[in-house]
Amino acid sequence: MSPPRTGYTFRAFFLGSVFAAALSAGAPYGNMVLRGSYLSQDFSTPGALFLFFVLAGVLNVLYKCLVPKGGLARAELLLIYSMMLIASAISTCGLSEYLLPIMGSWLYFATPENKWDDLFHPYIRDFLVPTDPLAIKHFYEGLPTGNSIPWAAWALPIFAWSLLVVAVYFAMICVAVILRRQWIEREKLIYPLAQLPLDMVRDADESVLPPFFKSPAMWVGFILPCLISSINAGHNYFHVLPQIQLSTGIDLFRNSVHLPVVLSFPVLGFAYLINLDIAFSLWFFNVAVNMQRGLYGVLGIPTGEALDTFSVSPAGIAHQEMGALVVLVVFTLWVGRGHFKDVFRKALFNAADVKDDDEILSYRVAVWGAFSSLVFAGAWLWLSGMPPLVALIFLLSAFAVFVAMTRIVAESGVPEARTPMMPQSFVTTGIGTSAIGETGITALGFTFTWATELRIVVMTSAAHALKLLDGQQGRHRPFFWALMLAVLVSMASSLFAILYLSYQYGGINLNRWFFGGGARAPFESFVARNLSNPTGPSWQGWFSTGIGASVMSALMLARHYLVWWPLHPIGFPIAGLWLMSHSWFSIFLAWLCKAVALKYWGPRGFQAARPFFLGAILGQFTSAGVWLLIDAFTGMTDNRIFSW
After folding, report:
1. CA distance 365 to 480
2. Contact 399, 412 (CB under 8 A)
3. Residue 187 to residue 332: CA distance in whole angstroms
4. How far does Cα 231 stand from its chain's mean position?
């Protein structure tokens, strides 16, 4: 048997850069100009999977047919997909489509009524934003005929923000390296979101067409969402075609709570891959928290202060789940204390008994790289106007959230989720706005450019990319450079595309959220509100945080000591998210299907049905991608067939 072919080839790096750039520029075009399906704003990375299907299932197969013993190796394909994972975390809501609009919204949406010019304009440091009013006006409304894009107005702020963002992303990759062995080799988390791309290239080096694409069950699962999506998409072209509704809802507690009932094929597919107790906890806790929300309204229970637009509502539940999130991070550190001790012994003292040859970075580089990057980020935030202690607390809070969300996705496989409370609000409610000051609040508001919805983050993409390396032999240091190359390529192509399209069409005419509510929210619901109503620490918030932490601790202890305990704690910290409310029913169906399959047919029944559910994921994402391409050629807009 010939040795496995390496993935670290020039063509793999080149193709990875091309696909990352195409995804980074294409995703903004899809949701800004075409206003179609979103393909790169969630952990599920639909755009990356669609392009990977085209590459691994079509182009590479044709290449092998035309050139015997040719084609891309499995390792090369996975490296290319890993670069697209990074691109997915940067191109839209992960960074670029918040960064640029927020950099201009401070001035564009300022009015005599909201008094932003008095409230916080004096506290904005010049390097944070473009200061040319016409450049910002034309960014939102489009260039007059004959004018050119004012690149110079954006050069300094984009350069300044790029320094911070690259440092933060480098720190995220370093942390992912530190966590890899503990999560993959010791705790053996299953990383459900990595299972589909791994299946698509399994035994790809031994056959022209990988076995995944030969499965009849997979194609049945693939065709079902394709057919439904195509009928719905075709309705926008030919109204004689019916629309197939896959969503309804249940109104509870005197219509004060609406519980969506949505069939999502990707959520159904990913949820089938996870353990039954995890799937049960995900849908159970969401329904329970919606009951709690309804009781708050019916009984008139105070729910706390107003938070930013992106945090869970009401504030009491957001604090509760943030407490659970903190406990999850503490638990992660405690369980992995032996591994982390080894990592620091290797980093500080070069301990000979600790091996790191199979990591993409040595532990010394990972530890000192993360530390130095965070020091740089703290200094950058201080220069932006944030007090040093506030900058430290914010960075620790943000990275705690990044680690927690990465852990939740790696263990539970939820394709759509985000943090229940933004780290900015956690800081302000925790220590009080009066302790932060006007300049600090303003600087915190601008951090929404890179730490906003957190529906997808580079740390999670990097962690899943490292899972794709599991089982590959040899040294993998070049893999780090592939990830960093993807960061740079994705930032450059997405920022260029968004600037170009905004000046071409006028951003406010393209996407109502990213250039409207999402761009105003950091200043409207966070900066202006906190500056107009300065407060001390929220003791009610801390009380709710304590309740959430206590419940999470009890759930973890019960899980550890009671064999019969049915509730996995991983579902509790994200139970109140609207994304989970749209996902609970599909998770429930997957849980039910898997429970029935295991009860009556055992592991063989589960394995037999698995390709069907993987096909359902791929079919939904492929149909969304294909219809975006069709719409681009025909000029059709607002033909959205997949939103989450």
Report:
1. 11
2. no
3. 10
4. 29
* Residue at token pair 């509730």: 567
What does the alpha-carbon distance between residue 586 and residue 572 come to, in Å, rounded to a whole number? 18
CB-based contacts of 460: which residues, under 8 Å, 6+ apart? 43, 89, 402, 405, 406, 409, 410
Contacts of 378 (CB under 8 A, 6+ apart): 388, 391, 392, 395
Question: Quick one: which of 326, 466, 329, 323 has its CA closest to 403?
Answer: 329
Element housing 520 (H / E): helix 518-521
Mean pLDDT for all residues in the chain: 94
Spatial CA neighbour of 456 closest among 21, 85, 78: 85
SS (H, E, C) 282-307: HHHHHHHHHHHHHHHHHHCCCCCCCC
Report residue 3's pLDDT band, with 50, 70 and 90 as the boundaries: low
Cα–Cα nearest to 16, from 82, 70, 61: 82
Cα gap 218→43, rounded to integer Å: 22
Residues 26, 500 contacting (CB under 8 angstroms)? no
Q: How confident is the model at residue 620 (pLDDT cuts 50, 70, 90)?
A: very high
Between helix 477-505 and helix 74-88 the angle, nearest 10°, is 40
Length of the chain: 644
With tokens 């929300």, the residue in question is: 293
| pLDDT for 1 | 44
pLDDT at residue 349 above 70? yes
572 Cβ contact list (under 8 Å, min separation 6):
281, 285, 321, 324, 548, 551, 552, 555
- The residue whose two tokens read 């070049």 is 478
Q: CA-to-CA distance for 78 and 93, rounded, in angstroms?
A: 24
Name the residue with tokens 């609000």: 425
Which DSSP letter does residue 242 get? Answer: P
Hey, what are 22's tokens?
């195409």
Give the span between the Cα atoms of 233 and 640, in whole angstroms.
Answer: 7
Angstrom distance (rounded) from CA 620 to CA 638 = 18
Q: What is the DSSP letter of 31?
A: H
φ and ψ of 70, to 5 deg:
-100, -160
**What is the Cα–Cα distance from 454 to 94, expressed in whole angstroms?**
7
Q: Two tokens at 372?
A: 């130095």
CA 206 to centroid of chain Cα atoms: 34
- Residues 185-196: pLDDT tens digits? 999 999 999 999
Structure tokens at 475: 């040294």
Q: Which of 638, 578, 499 is nearest to 259 (CA)?
A: 578
**CA–CA separation, 544 and 548 (whole Å):** 6
Strand 247-252 to 257-262 pairing: antiparallel
**Residue 514: closest CA among 494, 490, 530:** 494
Distance (Å, rounded) from C-alpha 426 to C-alpha 382?
A: 19
Give the pLDDT of residue 643: 57
Q: Contact at 8 Å (CB) between 643 and 35? A: no
